[in-house]
Amino acid sequence: MITKKTITILIPILLLGIRIDAQVPTNKYEKKIDSLILTGFESKNEPGGVFMVTQKGKSLYHKAFGKANLELDVNMTPKNVFQIGSMTKQFTAIAILMLEQQGKLNVNDPISKYIADYPNGAKITIHHLLTHTSGIKDFTKMKALSTIAQKEMKPEMMVDFFKNEPVDFAPGEKFEYNNSGYVLLGYIIEIVSGQTYEDFIKKNIFEKVGMLHSYYATDRQLIPKRAYGYHQKEHGFVNKTVISFSVPFSSGSLMSTVDDMLKWQQALNQNTLLNPAETKKVFQKYKLNNGEEFTYGYGWHLKDINGTPDREHGGSIFGFKSMGVYIPSEDIYVIGFSNCDCHSPTEITRNIAKITLQSIKK
């Protein structure tokens, strides 16, 4: 029987529980984050961004800054859809491991098993592509890129564009960030699954996770709540350069919202898409041929914030920049999107993660 005395005792305990669960002192914390973001996103009349912080899935901070569309004078909202650039690589890596889990490929397979005529393909493995250790020429560093930037390229055309370029180093010799490797992974996903990369990601990840506002990027399809991308020139802002999304393809052509990206992070934590053994492969550090360890798993940089391990990745594509940081030990997720490539959320997002970590550990 619950007596009046019991209720009197329980109320402060319950209230204390709420405070412990929230962990971060709201007003002081919010002002700290506001001031940090406003160092880079101070103008209400310029392109802006969206930032979100969660712990254990609960929102600690969720705000929008600036304009989603300058021409129509539309304010940014936390629900706006952004191009996420190289954060796409996370989805490509997980898709590869989903196929491995189904027994359709192995990360140690040579790419010649899937693309028979690829130069030196017998020595380059899927693992090399995932970890940026293949030595293949990064197509974004090729002078000829401008000749195809606005063309509709099939995946095999993209592969043909860079495959005969001289390699930068032997497979496994060093780590060097490489977009070509992730284009090859997208092509392998299509070959193995029998689906287009776009369809595979949509049906096997977006729909399964409930990411209802995430897309393979397009300038033609109507995207509800789309944030428009901008560059900054000496005379002011201009609309982003138009490119064919078939060029960055599986290395950088997805769009999403911060809320959908939280669903993505939770799906990874809950092994919704991968079993624990496959998930472990994603977030472990690997070694080069000489035994030296490097700080990249499959689709994520594996670093630390003041000694606390984190998983992070950014993205940059014409008109947009993105950054996500996840701290596994505290289940903290921080993500920032910008709709001008003149405003980088990278350091701001890492600093927000640092402040959040400090606030929680107090």
Automatic annotation (TrEMBL):
Coiled coil: none annotated. The lineage of its organism: Bacteria, Pseudomonadati, Bacteroidota, Flavobacteriia, Flavobacteriales. PANTHER family: BETA-LACTAMASE-RELATED DOMAIN-CONTAINING PROTEIN, D-ALANYL-D-ALANINE-CARBOXYPEPTIDASE/ENDOPEPTIDASE AMPH. This is Beta-lactamase. Gene3D superfamilies: DD-peptidase/beta-lactamase superfamily. Signal peptide: none annotated. Residues 39-342 form the Beta-lactamase-related domain. Pfam families: Beta-lactamase.
